[in-house]
Amino acid sequence: MIPVYRWRLAPEGLATFRQLRALGLRPAGQPVVAQLERPRRKRGPLVAFLYRVDLARPVRPMTPARWAALAKANAARRVCPACGRDAGYRIPTSLGMCVPCADAPQLAA
Fold first, then answer.
1. H/E element, 107
2. Which of 10, 32, 95, 101 supports an S-S bond with 82, CB 3.0-4.6 Å?
């Protein structure tokens, strides 16, 4: 069982994934050491996992191949599956298609 700390009461030397990223670090395969819990009124608590900062390693640099793969993935998210056109923006996952295609059934009614 891992220790649980209240929000903002974690000991020094522990950080969340986002805090590690802000420092230019990554967890590097280390296990979760502890967790933070932030209570909420009507739902379960927000949970954040903590990692040791001294075991974290620097973030790997982006290589040209990784930049190319990222550009290709982002370009694929811009193409509307309904009409096949480049929308000029990332297609919202809530719609699943570009805004004109999503609005077309409503305009026809």
1. helix 99-108
2. 101
Q: Which residues contact 16 (CB under 8 A, 6 or more apart)?
A: 36, 48, 49, 50, 51
Sheet with 4-6, side-by-side order of all strands: 4-6, 34-38, 46-52, 14-15
Least Cα distance to 54 among 72, 83, 36, 28 occurs for 28
CB count within 10 Å of CB 14 equals: 19
Which of 50, 56, 43 is CA-nearest to residue 6? 50
| Euclidean distance between CA atoms 63 and 67, whole angstroms | 6
* Cα 61 to Cα 16, 26, 35, 77, distances in angstroms: 20, 12, 28, 24
pLDDT tens-digit profile of 14-53? 999 999 999 999 999 999 999 999 999 999 999 999 999 9
Identity of the amino acid at 68: A
| This prediction's pTM | 0.68
d(C-alpha 49, C-alpha 1), whole Å: 13
